[in-house]
Design goal:
The protein is mostly helical. The chain is about 65% helix and about 5% strand. A two-stranded antiparallel sheet has the order 1-2. The longest helix is centred in the first third of the chain and has 37 residues.
């Protein structure tokens, strides 16, 4: 794979955030390699190897590659068929005082693996911040609609009422779990460190004339200079590819959450109860001018499936690593890792755009409730009759007959549910006719949904977003506009 092509994917070119696209760019990758070589040289010099101040200074002042240096690296890689050595050669040309000590004692995975861990940690941080913003936006939506009754569904069949806000808390709770899982994965990350070709540190032991303490200190110093709290205690040539499994698992889980939210919103769009944003000039169909397709949520579902599948790549790659390593992981990971982060980034930004422009149609919601609520209220009607001195079994039979008549109107004749009109016309129900409006008030069928929203937002969402790292991200955010 050409040095200039490494990590480039179609996803990064249009939809990914600038930060995430840059993280997996050739420029960022090459600079990070140079930073790692610099850290190694600083630590080796500190521990007594003959590395000059001039060498260190030349490395420090040439961390960024110019277009000309990228050309040199590409030509070198084509000739040498080795991307790391191509970049060692290129770095040495602009830092000639350091040419002889760049990569001293290291194997290629010193830069490739340690850089990947840096990218993974940074990418997870970006995702945490994006996820926090999405949770915040959906929390505002939940609060605004905390008490708006809506028909609940089980098996996608009408069930008891809930509220629009309560339904949104189901989405938010799962996103909070994703926030927790991604943070755990990030905070658990270690560094490969300075381990040598098969993980034995033999080359560094030779450099320091058999001084084991200096080799251990070198590992510790480079790890600290690179910003990690610890290095994995043992490795083969690479850090264990099981780490990639641990990283992609929470991203795949996030993909499942996003797919669920996107699907719910697509179903609500079909019901015309809640819709994603739709610009005044947006076209839903080239043939059907009236259509308002939920294209953003469809994109979320499409990419989320891809995100979930990428985890399988990490599982398979880890499982076939022989002994200290084989190279059949490399090409796969150069695609899988960037795509996972870029895809997750796009999924979150798209969902955020949706959450910032959700449109609720209370009249449609009320109409659907009116179609189903009379059947749900039959038990309340029976109990009200009993309270007025009526017989429960007789009331039950009356309601049963009228309910079947109303169901016939709805299912066989395609008419509106007229159960309540039938109740009003039947003299048997005269004792409770003045109470019918109260007995059919949707707000009396939503249980503690509004209170559950309030408590959930206060006791769970608030503390989760109070983290200083996330508060800073929330303070810096504006509304997201997508090029759809």
């Amino acid at each position: 794979m050409d040095a200039l092509e490494t990590y480039q994917t179609p996803l990064s070119s249009r939809y990914a955030s600038k930060d995430m696209a840059n993280l997996f760019s050739p420029a960022k990758r090459s600079r990070t390699w140079r930073e790692l070589w610099l850290n190694l040289a600083i630590a080796e010099k500190q521990l007594g190897l003959p590395i000059t101040d001039e060498a260190i200074e030349q490395m420090k002042t040439n961390l960024d590659l110019t277009p000309e240096q990228f050309d040199i690296a590409a030509k070198e890689e084509k000739k040498r068929r080795h991307d790391v050595m191509a970049h060692v050669h290129t770095f040495g040309q602009v830092a000639p005082a350091a040419a002889g000590i760049i990569h001293l004692g290291a194997t290629s995975c010193y830069v490739t693996d340690n850089a990947d861990l840096i990218f993974i940690r940074t990418g997870l941080t970006y995702l945490l911040k994006s996820l926090a913003v999405l949770i915040s936006r959906l929390s505002v939506f939940a609060q605004d609609n905390r008490a708006l009754p809506t028909l609940g569904f089980t098996h996608f069949q009408p069930a008891q009422l809930t509220t629009v806000g309560k339904r949104a808390t189901l989405w938010i709770q799962e996103l909070l779990w994703d926030l927790r899982n991604i943070k755990r994965a990030r905070d658990d990350l270690g560094f490969r460190g300075v381990k040598g070709t098969t993980g034995t540190q033999a080359s560094f032991l030779a450099l320091f004339d058999g001084d084991h303490d200096k080799v251990e200190e070198l590992d510790r110093l480079v790890t600290k200079l690179s910003g990690f709290p610890y290095a994995y205690p043992v490795t083969g040539q690479t850090y264990s590819r099981k780490i990639d499994i641990d990283v992609l698992a929470p991203l795949a889980s996030l993909g499942a959450t996003a797919h669920k939210i996107g699907t719910d919103l697509r179903l609500l769009a079909n019901l015309k109860e809640v819709e994603e944003p739709f610009e005044t000039t947006q076209i839903g169909s080239s043939a059907m001018a009236y259509k308002r397709n939920p294209m953003r949520c469809e994109r979320v579902c499409s990419l989320s499936r891809h995100l979930q599948v990428l985890h399988q790549n990490a599982l398979m790659t880890y499982s076939v690593q022989w002994f200290e390593r084989t190279l059949d992981d490399s090409a796969n990971r150069r695609v899988t890792l960037p795509e996972a982060f870029l895809t997750a980034d796009i999924v979150l930004s798209t969902l955020r755009n949706v959450s910032e422009g959700l449109v609720v149609y209370p009249n449609v919601i009320a109409r659907r409730i009116a179609q189903e609520l009379p059947f749900m209220a039959t038990e309340n009607l029976i109990m009200a009759i009993v309270k007025k001195g009526g017989d429960r079994q007789e009331a039950h039979e009356k309601i049963r007959v009228l309910s079947h008549e109303a169901a016939h109107q709805v299912k066989n004749l395609g008419r509106e549910n007229d159960l309540i009109e039938r109740v009003r016309r039947d003299p048997y129900f005269d004792p409770i006719k003045d109470e019918l409006d109260q007995l059919l008030d949707p707000t009396t069928f939503i249980g503690r949904a509004p209170e559950q929203v309030d408590r959930f937002l206060k006791e769970w969402v608030g503390p989760a977003l109070a983290d200083e790292e996330l508060k800073e991200a929330l303070a810096k955010t504006d509304r997201v506009e997508l090029n759809v």
